[in-house]
């Protein structure tokens, strides 16, 4: 288990083993999630959703109507 201390400015240092495991570098973005039970989940944000643009291709000749995409309605 790794541990760090919170400063008066609300800052902390991520322990080296954690940085290594997350491949975190200076300037890496961290995403903090507070769960209803009080657990905090922190993850390194490695990509933007915009980085995924164009990665998925629709099968040729197949189209989907909007009504079919919203099947739960």
Put simply, the count of helices is 2
Structural class: alpha+beta
Low-confidence sequence ranges: none
Largest sheet report = 2 strands, antiparallel
The outline comes out as elongated
Report helical residue fraction.
Answer: 10-25%
What is the count of β-strands? Answer: 2
Beta content comes to: 15-25%
**Order of secondary-structure elements:** HEEH
| Gap between N and C termini | 46 Å
Main sheet: strand order: 1-2
What is the residue-mean pLDDT, rounded to a whole number? 85
| Radius of gyration based on Cα positions | 20 Å
Compile the SSE list and pairings.
Blueprint: H1 16-22, E1 29-34, E2 40-45, H2 66-69
Antiparallel strand pairs: 1-2
Describe the protein's architecture and organization.
The structure is a single chain. The chain has 73 residues and is of the alpha+beta class. 15% of the residues lie in helices and 16% in strands. The protein has helices spanning 16-22, 66-69; strands spanning 29-34, 40-45. It has a two-stranded antiparallel ribbon with strand order 1-2. The termini are far apart.
